[in-house]
Amino acid sequence: MAIYTCGHTTPDSDSICSAISLGYLLNKIGREAIPARQGVVSPETQFILDRFGFEAPILKTEFAGEEIFITDYSDRGQAPKDIDEATIVGIVDHHKLGDITTSTPLECWIRPVGCTNTIVKEMYDFHQVEIPANIAGIMMCAILSDTVIFKSPTCTDADIKAVRELAAIAGVEDFGSVGMEMFKVKSAVEGTPVRDLILRDYKPFDMHGKDVGIGQLEVIDLAIFDSIKDELQADLDKLREENNLHTACLLLTDIMKEGSEVLVSSEDSSIFEKAFDVKLENGKVWLDGCLSRKKQVIPFLQPAFA
């Protein structure tokens, strides 16, 4: 039986690229694997796949009776709905340990680094498997994306080392310029429905029994949202109501100014205000220096719900 390598719902570049890079590795060490994805490919991810000559992994949302190696998450809320009917053979992730449990032992590669593909690179090194140039290219791009070209507080020396080594394998001389090309693609939001923007990089969380959704859009100039910010706020309210969420947030992250304007829709906005010691104005607030949902939002917001 083939193992499916698959990331979280509403997949980002790390989720898609780690499914591909991990799938190749497993096949090389004699474990038949098929890369998969749970959702649509974002414009940034499509740019990466096109640049290095890849098709998107197969779209698959049901895994009952299958074996799955999870990439880039361990929270049940980001898993397929039938995850309990699948056999999880492994997890490779760089986030907090989630609430997925298994009935059998499994392989776990979980590290406090900036990107899942940094860990997959460690797996290649461990198994002494050579990385093809095109695989190295997508892994490099995923790390640059997740670490915001090394600006994110989640970035570690291991991420930087991995990018330099992968760039050399991929034949990329200026990985910084590739990173900026990716973020220019991310910044092209004109004509995209507001709901698609909110869900482009969106993750659901269970915070002490309260359902919370957090999306993030990373761009090189926050001004591109000026004409649609009210629409984003209104649709965030609709999303919260439709999904019976306690709180829905959208981070509008300016990678050049190195901060985020956060749009908040909540049954009780005082929880958010308490978590970050701020006062919302019309459901919005600027968080200076905030680039990472994983490290600078969730660790503060989750305890506030306790």
Automatic annotation (TrEMBL):
NCBIfam families, per database record: PRK05427.1 (NF003877)
UniProt name for this protein: inorganic diphosphatase
Coiled-coil stretches: 222-249
Catalysed reactions, semicolon-separated: diphosphate + H2O = 2 phosphate + H(+)
Keyword list, A-Z: Coiled coil, Hydrolase, Manganese, Metal-binding
Keyword Ribonucleoprotein: no
E.C. numbers: 3.6.1.1
Cofactor entry: Mn(2+)
GO CC terms: cytoplasm
Molecular function (Gene Ontology), one example: inorganic diphosphate phosphatase activity
Domain DHHA2: start-end pairs: 179-305
Gene3D superfamilies, alphabetized: DHHA2 domain (3.10.310.20), inorganic pyrophosphatase (n-terminal core) (3.90.1640.10)
Source organism per UniProt: Arcobacter arenosus
Phylogenetic classification of the source organism: Bacteria, Pseudomonadati, Campylobacterota, Epsilonproteobacteria, Campylobacterales
Superkingdom of the organism of origin: Bacteria
